Amino acid sequence: MTILFPLIVVSIFILAASIRIIQQYQTGVVFQLGRYSRTLQPGLNLIIPVIENATVIDMRISTNDIPKQQVITRDNVPVSINGVVYFKVIDAQTAVIKVQNYLYAVSQYAQAALRDVVGGMSLDDLLAERQKIGDEIETIIQKQAEGWGLQVTGIKILDVDMPEELKKMMSRQASAEREKRATITKAEGDKLAAFNLAEAAKTMAQSPGAMQLRTLQTIDGLGPTASNTVVLAVPVDVMELVRGVTAKIIDKKQE
Known about the structure:
Elements: H1 4-18, E1 19-22, E2 26-32, E3 35-40, E4 43-46, E5 52-58, E6 62-72, E7 78-89, H2 92-97, H3 102-119, H4 123-128, H5 130-145, E8 150-161, H6 164-206, H7 210-221, H8 236-254
Antiparallel strand pairs: 1-4, 2-3, 2-5, 6-7, 7-8
Helix pairs in contact: 3-5
């Protein structure tokens, strides 16, 4: 009995050390005496204690921040820019053997690629082409990441920070552009209004009763309010007609 109990304890310890449970989103890489042996699939797996060692790799998409970088654009404007890189492990064996720490390696390579891409662009392109910048950085990183057993799924540019003086200049420029568009729009409206007024005046000149009709419409639009004062301007031709009729009446009386 005294010998059986230690054997049971040792057996339980060996069995516990031999069991490796791999989750559905994981992969295990087994090294036997320091050499790659096999890859463990999700589920219950057994390894040889002491002789074998298993490294578990997460196969899900990972996110890694690209710290804020100080970059000089092609037109010599200093900017601070940061982003995020999305990637996943597609070959666990290569990711463990080929690179010491693939998370750190991707982060450092993304920083270098970000500085290279932004440094070759002007400030206007940087502000307008964020998606293009992300695609270029993704292409650069992917060429290297393939050799590490990784796949880059996306790069996103988060913030672009510029000096305060430059922000004020850009704000003034944008304000001037808006004022310019407003002035042009107003001028076009005035031109259209003048053209319409000229056409209306031409129509009234060709129609003898058009002016009187317009006058009546204007009076009708004033409403019945007692406080309104209406001043009617009688056309000159009407006054001449009245004056002529009056003169004829006076002449008949004198005869």
